[in-house]
Design a protein that fits this description.
The structure is a single chain. The protein is of the alpha/beta class. The chain is built from 20 helices and 15 strands. The strands form four sheets. Strands 1, 2, 3, 4, 8, 12 and 13 form a seven-stranded parallel β-sheet that branches. A four-stranded antiparallel β-sheet has the order 6-5-7-9. The longest helix is centred in the C-terminal third of the chain and has 31 residues. The protein binds 5'-O-[(L-methionyl)-sulphamoyl]adenosine (MSP). The site of 5'-O-[(L-methionyl)-sulphamoyl]adenosine (MSP) has 21 residues, from strand 2, helix 1, helix 7 and strand 12. The site of 5'-O-[(L-methionyl)-sulphamoyl]adenosine has 21 residues, from strand 2, helix 1, helix 7 and strand 12.
Length: 508
């Protein structure tokens, strides 16, 4: 990421028939933190959207007494709202029912056929409609879908379909994983995928003829929903016509996904692209699951989905974003609860960061009429010199928590500077030079924090910026902005409301 090359990141496209829950918000927020950091270094683009085809959708539409198109049109707006509700800013939102997507899918299909990798055959096997996946008989558990989150009955399907010669790409995939371990992170998922490749890859069917809610193929049948879905990452860039030049500029990009869909993204998708003669994604990161306190994956079908909108209303988008990025290493499972959110909100955000801003500006107000004194070049300047690079490096490797740890070390250091140097004593003993030096360090430190925190908490970082008396927003190029001494002497600060008012549990 944040390199000179234009950067492109995607979320999975969400199943339209689901209900947005905290897990979907998690992926979208992570992509937003990443792309905001990338935008602070160069050109960057982020994509999200909805996955709208497949038998599951057709069945749900029929149950609702609607045509599939009416059904997906009715559901799309709530998915469009998801990212903006958490201040996640995507450059495009793709729906797989859009004509631009169908065009790209058919073009890719044709290319793969021309390369001899797509052939006709009869498919017979066990199909789980819920997961839209074929399962070999040996994998079934008591005759049911082997996915532990599903375990629904499977159906026997037999139909004439198009097949993709995935088996032909086994060696190339093995080589990809071996020669580029960073292609898929974290290591646990990498190990899982290499084990799948080593078991041997089978061809699989990429079309369906038993139902028609999908992208129609010229000779009959529709494309398999996962085949169609993966192509969204390039159809949204305008491939193959590329009239706006987006594909040429941004592809290949990186994918952020949940760990359960790594096989599709790191085995099937690269093989599809190779077959069509196109570049494969630069990297894939498969994050962990948010679980309930009891450890089960949160999801609609389990009935324990935490409503992300209710959590946002209670804690605010920034506090929720912060929690999700700080609570666990990206890649590990972790649990969420209102108590844990409250704890981080009150302690990390309220006591550490919020108080640092409040105390610093209050003292500046009291001792210097709120006006920023002369810059200094002391210990703080030295301490933060390589902070932007370290934070950027962590974020580039999706170590969001570690990036926040680094930033928080500075918050702690500045709070400690107040406690140790006791500005009230400096003032009392007329040690003006030292007092100015400390006040400048605090304000300039806060300005840096506001720029560095902008990708994580855009609103609160903006509020910090405004209280420091600065114009515009902290959305800046780090290279230009994070130069010590950038806060001008004479700036009139503007202390305001507390950033993170305390949230107490409801009275019993
Ligand atoms: N439509 C497919 C993806 C196609 S991409 C070409 C799909 N959709 S989904 O609606 O089920 O969303 C899956 C994504 O939502 C996961 O990959 C993950 O990013 C996110 N999450 C869903 N539940 C989650 C948790 N409980 N925890 C964390 N993320 C989860 O799969």
């Amino acid at each position: 990421m944040p390199s000179q090359r234009p950067f492109y990141v995607t979320t999975p496209i969400y199943y339209i028939s689901g209900t947005p829950h905290i897990g979907h918000a998690y992926t979208s927020i992570a992509a937003d933190v990443l792309v905001r950091t990338a935008r602070a270094h160069g050109e960057a683009r982020a994509l999200t959207g909805t996955d709208e085809h497949g038998q599951k959708v057709a069945n749900a539409a029929a149950a609702a007494g609607m045509t599939p198109q009416e059904y997906v049109d009715a559901l799309a707006p709530k998915w469009r709202e998801l990212a903006p509700s958490f201040d996640a800013r995507f450059d495009d939102f793709i729906r797989t029912t859009e004509p631009r997507h169908a065009r790209a899918c058919l073009a890719l299909f044709e290319r793969m056929r021309a390369s001899g990798d797509v052939y006709e055959g009869v498919y017979e096997g066990w199909y789980c409609t819920h997961d839209e996946t074929f399962w070999p008989e040996a994998k079934l558990v008591d005759g049911r879908c082997p996915n532990p989150e599903c375990r629904r009955p499977v159906q026997w399907l037999s139909e004439k379909n198009w097949f993709f010669r995935l088996s032909a790409y086994e060696e190339r995939l093995r080589h990809l994983f071996r020669s580029n371990p960073d292609f898929l992170r974290p290591q646990s998922r990498y190990n899982e995928m290499t084990a799948i490749i080593d078991e041997g890859l089978e061809d699989f069917s990429i079309s369906r003829s038993s139902f028609d809610w999908g992208i129609p193929l010229p000779g009959g049948g529709v494309l398999y929903v996962w085949y169609d879905a993966l192509i969204n990452y390039i159809s949204a860039l305008g491939w193959p016509d590329d009239r706006d030049g987006l594909y040429a500029r941004f592809w290949p990009g990186m994918h952020i996904i949940g760990k359960e869909i790594a096989r599709f993204h790191t085995i099937i998708w690269p093989a599809m692209l190779w077959s069509a003669g196109l570049p494969i994604p630069t990297r894939v990161f498969a994050h962990g699951w948010i679980t309930s306190e009891s450890g089960t994956k949160i999801g609609k079908s389990l009935g324990n989905a935490m409503d992300p909108f209710a959590l946002r209303d209670e804690f605010g988008a920034d506090s929720l974003r912060y929690f999700l990025m700080r609570e666990a290493p990206f890649g590990s499972d972790f649990s969420i609860s209102v108590e844990k959110l409250r704890q981080r909100h009150n302690s990390d955000l309220g006591n550490d960061l919020g108080n640092l801003l409040r105390r610093s500006l209050a003292m500046l107000q009291k001792y210097r009429n709120g006006i920023v004194p002369q810059p200094t070049d002391g210990a703080v300047a030295e301490r933060v010199a390589d902070l932007p690079e370290r934070v950027r490096e962590h974020i580039a490797c999706l170590r969001f928590r570690e990036a926040l740890d680094e930033i928080w070390n500075v918050v702690t250091m500045l709070n400690r500077a107040i406690d140790e140097q006791k500005p009230w004593e400096l003032y009392k003993h007329a040690r003006g030079v030292e007092l100015d030096a400390l006040l400048y360090d605090l304000c300039e430190g806060l300005r840096w924090l506001s720029v560095l925190l902008f990708p994580f908490m855009p609103r609160k970082a903006g509020a910090m910026w405004a209280q420091l008396g600065l114009d515009g927003t902290p959305e800046r190029r780090w290279e230009d902005e994070l130069v010590w001494g950038g806060l001008a002497t004479g700036t009139q600060t503007n202390p305001g409301a507390p950033l993170f008012p305390r949230i107490d549990p409801p009275a019993a």
